[in-house]
Amino acid sequence: MKKTTLIYSALAVLISCSGCSYNTQSTPESWLKTHGLSTPTDSGEMTLCQNFGCTKSKSIQLSADELKPVQLLFTPLPADAVEERERIAQAIGLLEKITGPKIGTEHDLAKNAFGFSFESNQLDCVAESNNTSTYLLLLQNLELLKYHRVGGNMHRGLFTLHAPHNSAAVIESDTDHAYAVDSWFRPNGEAAWIIEAEHWLSGAAP
To answer: What is the C-alpha to C-alpha distance for residues 199 and 194, in angstroms, rounded to an integer?
Structure first.
């Protein structure tokens, strides 16, 4: 009986903790690699998901002219981490506008959108989080992030009452505090939703 009780107690702890913590030392590269995506270069070369589940992807090259408005978003550099997160949210939307026509996702709707098909270019949270992590790595490579670094992708839903969901993330450098950078809730070209990791992991939505 004692052994059985110990097993159930361990399971209870696992279930209560699942989706409630995040490793701030994680990075997105390994997660991107599992979907066949490479790390973007500072010259604007990147590979992005094109459809639900990221079963299709495309490599593109952004020109200096296309990168310029993104860089202007951070000119002058933000005064603090809060302002930088606001700029990051805007930059994700701007990069979606720039890359959308190149990869066929310019008409991507918010969330999964009813009536999507596996052959369409509607993005789910897996594809959205991968693309957003790629955009964040681009910002980091361009040295536009002063107060944050890019974290590993966040996942929630396992052993919880919430539907499985994924998001990109940034870590505030001074505090090691994590924030979800979630572009799935909004259509292509709109600013990403940024929220503290603990709230996102608990099932929060805009």
So the answer is: 10
Where does the pLDDT of residue 12 fall: very low under 50, low under 70, confident under 90, or very high at 90 and above? very low
**Full 3-state SS string of the chain:** CHHHHHHHHHHHHHHHHCCCCCCCCCCCHHHHHHCCCCCCCCCCEEEEECCHHHCCEEEEECCHHHHHHHHHHCCCCCCCHHHHHHHHHHHHHHHHHHHHHHHCCCCCCCCCCCCCCCCCCCCCHHHHHHHHHHHHHHHHHCCCCCCEEEEEEEEECCCCCCCCEEEEEEEECCCCEEEEEECCCCCCCCCCEEEEHHHHHCCCCC
Mean pLDDT of 115-123: 67
- 42-73 pLDDT, tens digit each: 999 999 999 999 999 999 999 999 999 999 99
Phi, psi of 153 (to 5 degrees): -65, 140
**Strands 148-156 and 177-182, sheet pairing:** unpaired
pTM above 0.85, yes or no: yes
Give dist(CA 176, CA 185) in Å, integer.
Answer: 25
Residue type, 198: E
Instruction: Return the residue matching tokens 């890019």.
Output: 150
Question: Tens of pLDDT along 100-114?
Answer: 999 999 999 999 875
Whole-angstrom distance, CA of residue 27 vs CA of residue 161: 26
